[in-house]
Structure formats: structure tokens, C-alpha cells
């Protein structure tokens, strides 16, 4: 009974992103959907002594609104990689796994990548290796499926002969469930229970990017939370 899930590209995805991948047989990296400004596609949070701190990948959006994520260019004139590494260093140098993890990031951030979706893809592959997650991962841009919204998900399920779709909670706002029922495909919604793990800087803050979890613990089984 193949289970399919899908999500837009994301920079430093939160743990729920990976729990969704773990809960499926096929995960579709939705690089054909429209880029959303101020979304988690090009930014995410780390923890600082002052609380949550955003790390944002600068992108060129002038004249590009309405185009798919796969065509969004990174503003390479910015020194964002240097800035992000510095922020990570300053806020995680006391983390339990800093010594073994930071050097890997330095190598990862050396790559010259001009497209946001490529950056997110490269990083996703990195995080999956680091977290020991093995699933079939495909880009929607390579599937030949060009429909939109609910039809896109349904057609992806059909393309991979999935009989179940694992949706994020926001899918309730746009999925036409009857279409899935008619196609013999069940729909379930992710209800992620965020784990508590050892963390720097006082009171625990959930929903940080994966980097916070990775720097602080190697108990990767916690990713599935209470599910």
C-alpha cells in the first residue's frame, strides 16, 4: 500500500518535514509550485540567547512573482552564506555536537548554487543522509505532472500508483477529498507531535529548523515525536 507525501522546497526544514517523509514511501519535492514570499521556502529559524532567529536566503523576486520555485534565483551578490555560517557558529559553538557537525556545514555551504530549488534539494539530500532517512524522493519537475493544487496531488498519487496520500494539516483547506475517494486513494492528515530534546539557551522552543535538533542531539528516533 504505497503512501505518497509532498511538500514545497524548504531551507533548513523543521522536524515535521522529515516526519512526513518518514511516514511515506514516496516523497515529492514540489519545485513546480509558485514561490511564496515570506514562507519557509527560503528561510527558517535557529535558536539564539534572545530566542528564535531567522536565517533567510536572499532571492531575486523582482519581475518573478508567480513563477515556480524551480526558477527562483538566489541573490548571489549577497554574502548570505558567510552570514549564516557566522550566525550558526556564534549560537551553536556550545552545542553538544558542534565539533562534528559544523565542519560538515562549512563544506556544504561552499557549493556555488544559483537557484533556490537546487539549494533546497542539495540540503535536503544532506539532511536525509545525516538523519539516516531512506525513502524514494522525486522532484515534481521531473514527473511530467503539470496540474495544480488538489489535482496536482491526485495526479502525483496516480503517477506513482499510491493508494494513500499523507497531507500536511493545511491540506484540509484545498484538497477535494471526494476526488481521491473516487480514485480509490485514502487521505490522512499529519498531526505532528513535536519532541522535546536538549537545547541551548533556556526554555525549550519547538519548531526550529532541523539544524537546531541536529546540533543538540543524535537521538534521531525522536523525529517521529509521539506518533
Search tags:
single chain, 227 residues, alpha/beta, Rossmann fold, five-stranded parallel β-sheet, two-stranded antiparallel sheet, 9 strands, 16% strand
Present the secondary structure layout.
Elements: E1 3-7, H1 15-22, E2 26-29, E3 43-48, E4 51-56, E5 59-60, E6 73-74, H2 80-92, H3 98-108, H4 116-131, E7 136-139, H5 149-159, E8 164-167, H6 177-182, E9 186-189, H7 210-216
Parallel strand pairs: 1-2, 1-8, 2-7, 8-9
Antiparallel strand pairs: 3-4, 5-6
Helix pairs in contact: 2-3
Give the strand line-up of the largest sheet.
7-2-1-8-9
**Low-confidence segments:** none
Give the number of domains. 1
CATH class, named: Alpha Beta
Largest pleated sheet: 5 strands, parallel
Q: Average the pLDDT over all residues and give the rounded result.
A: 95
CATH architecture label: 3-Layer(aba) Sandwich
From the spread of the alpha carbons, the general shape counts as: globular
> What distance lies between the first and last C-alpha atoms, to the nearest angstrom?
19 Å
Helix content: 25-40%
Percent of residues in β-strands:
15-25%
The secondary-structure element order is: EHEEEEEHHHEHEHEH
Characterise this structure:
- It contains seven helices and nine strands; from the N terminus they run βαβββββαααβαβαβα.
- The chain is α/β, with parallel strands linked by helices.
- It has a single domain, classed as Rossmann fold.
- It has a five-stranded parallel beta sheet with strand order 7-2-1-8-9, with helices on both faces.
- Helix 1 (15-22) links the parallel strand 1 (3-7) and strand 2.
- Helix 2 runs antiparallel to helix 3 (98-108).
- It is globular and about 55 Å long.
- The model has no long low-confidence stretch (mean pLDDT 95).
